[in-house]
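Consider the tokenized backbone below.
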């Protein structure tokens, strides 16, 4: 049996329950993993609340797609892994099918990456969602090049910080957008060449000033809502406004017509484009692993919570105070 976080109805963090359930035996192409740490992401809070891009198909529902642990057992037709091996679970599956908020969980083998000896469980649970999301969008979808300016909103989030690091490693200039001045110094310390405080500054005007009037090659936006009109003004001709989150929770207009039909690419993106394609995942994982090795990339962990306080961790997620990643640890 394994303590497993499930919810039996949609709602706030209080609907999360710790149920003692049999994790089951791994089937073909599956692996049973002892979970040591769990990366907490916005997608889980949205899935819990019934606001995720993918609806919950059945209750009780599982949660979580990012974790680190150790392989306990292999199902049939699984190669390249062995019991006792340290691994990370990356977000390559639907929460309707699998969930890693648990002491032990069955997951598809294609979602496992070997975890090097020097990467502890907390780091191994904190880096993959942010960096795979950032790499796929910045390097492969947008084709960010050295010398480009990349604007990142919600920059203090796990994904935002990974995007700042990734832009810098690609040779681009990362510009961070954050709502208040509270996190500005820490964003500069994490490599932001400029920090724009959206509550105090006109973001588009500031980006145009910074780029000599041309605009940024790409804007990576996790906020969406009516603000996209203003963000689109900050994009250079032929550049991209890439939407990867919807923190505002408000309807998002299409900015093209409002701005006179500029040469603007508007693109939505999820990490699943990267993680559900074996070739793209292989390239992205190699890039992230090399960044972790050379120190350009690292886990920025804001707070740890024990599994028994998973609802508190979700409440903290909603507080907006965080800087980097929230991780839940599992004691065995
Ligand atoms: N497309 C994908 O595949 C993918 C994958 C992972 C994450 N995401 C998205 O990336 C974003 C970050 O996710 P995360 O899990 O790393 O962290 P998160 O907890 O969702 O983001 C926290 C940050 O978002 C900003 N924020 C919070 N509420 C906001 C609001 N109402 N308006 C504007 N900004 C707000 C704050 O940054 P400041 O205090 O700096 O303003 C806060 O620190 C989310 O939108 C998530 O859905 C997308």
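A designed sequence for it:
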């Amino acid at each position: 049996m394994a303590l497993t976080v499930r919810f039996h109805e949609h709602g706030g963090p209080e609907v999360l329950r710790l149920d003692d359930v049999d994790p089951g035996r791994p089937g073909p192409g599956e692996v049973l993993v002892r979970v040591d740490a769990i990366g907490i992401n916005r997608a889980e809070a949205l899935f819990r609340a019934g606001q995720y891009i993918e609806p919950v198909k059945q209750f009780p529902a599982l949660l979580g797609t990012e974790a680190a642990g150790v392989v306990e057992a292999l199902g049939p037709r699984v190669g390249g892994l062995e019991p006792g091996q340290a691994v990370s679970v990356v977000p390559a599956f639907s929460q309707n099918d699998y969930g890693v908020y648990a002491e032990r969980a069955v997951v598809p083998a294609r979602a496992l990456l070997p975890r090097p000896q020097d990467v502890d469980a907390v780091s191994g649970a904190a880096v993959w969602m942010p960096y795979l999301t950032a790499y796929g969008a910045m390097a492969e979808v947008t084709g960010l090049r050295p010398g480009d300016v990349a604007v990142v909103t919600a920059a203090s989030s796990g994904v935002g910080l990974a995007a700042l690091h990734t832009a810098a490693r690609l040779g681009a200039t990362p510009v961070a957008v954050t709502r208040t001045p509270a996190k500005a110094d820490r964003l500069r310390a994490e490599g932001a060449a400029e920090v724009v405080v959206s509550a105090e500054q006109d973001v588009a005007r500031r980006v145009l000033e910074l780029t000599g009037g041309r605009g940024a090659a790409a804007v990576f936006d996790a906020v969406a809502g009516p603000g996209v009109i203003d963000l689109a003004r900050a994009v250079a001709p032929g550049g991209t406004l890439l939407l990867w989150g919807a923190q505002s929770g408000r309807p998002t207009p299409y900015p093209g017509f409002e701005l006179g039909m500029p040469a603007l690419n508007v693109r939505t993106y999820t990490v699943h484009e990267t993680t559900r394609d074996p070739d793209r995942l292989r390239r992205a994982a190699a890039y992230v692993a090399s960044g972790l090795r050379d120190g350009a990339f690292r886990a920025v962990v804001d707070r740890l919570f024990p599994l028994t306080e998973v609802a508190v961790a979700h409440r903290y997620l909603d507080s907006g105070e965080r800087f980097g990643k929230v991780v839940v640890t599992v004691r065995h």
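The mean pLDDT is 97.
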